[in-house]
What we know:
Layout: E1 3-8, H1 13-17, H2 30-44, E2 50-53, H3 57-70, E3 74-76, H4 93-99, H5 101-108, H6 122-139, E4 145-150, H7 152-162, E5 181-186, E6 193-200
Parallel strand pairs: 1-4, 2-3, 2-4
Antiparallel strand pairs: 1-5, 5-6
GO cellular component, one term: cytoplasm
Organism: Nocardioides marmoriginsengisoli
Protein name: Histidine phosphatase family protein
Amino acid sequence: xxxxxxxxxxxxxxxxxxxxxxxxxxxxxxxxxxxxxxxxxxxxxxxxxxxxxxxxxxxxxxxxxxxxxxxxxxxxxxxxxxxxxxxxxxxxxxxxxxxxxxxxxxxxxxxxxxxxxxxxxxxxxxxxxxxxxxxxxxxxxxxxxxxxxxxxxxxxxxxxxxxxxxxxxxxxxxxxxxxxxxxxxxxxxxxxxxxxxxxxxxxxxxxxxxxxxxxxxx
Length: 218
């Protein structure tokens, strides 16, 4: 099978505290480093021939563990960054609710950022993420595997768009755990790309509140 493996970065201190990260360059904490060390040999067993990553520190540090396990060099692409969360960056959920009550209400109702001032829209993220994923998929030779390290919210949204699913399907997917991964593969019948697995992990889920309910973008 030709495969594309999408991996969320390991845990950060802000994940633990429930703070929105967005483009803020927060590195992995001790647990996040352990998660990256645990997932790296599992991904190496898939025999990837290419490794891509967001250029943000938490993704770079996760990708570095995978690179060490696979012997691959990491190619960085800023298009693989998380949503820019604008003025929500650094805020916990209670702080977000207090400072931006209207945006918080919209977020609780299902809007991925709450349209807080300065935040990227879904369209903006899809317009940069999906072309990047398509380029990586197109560059992956037949029967080989490429790995992409990115972020929770942008991966969930771009996965749905990449597969051509209706936008509302994103609301039925929970967010990826830290160092959880998705496997996409070519359909042998020639009907394009299909989802083979979602949110696989090699460790107990150790993270802050579930992204799908209360966790911020990160």
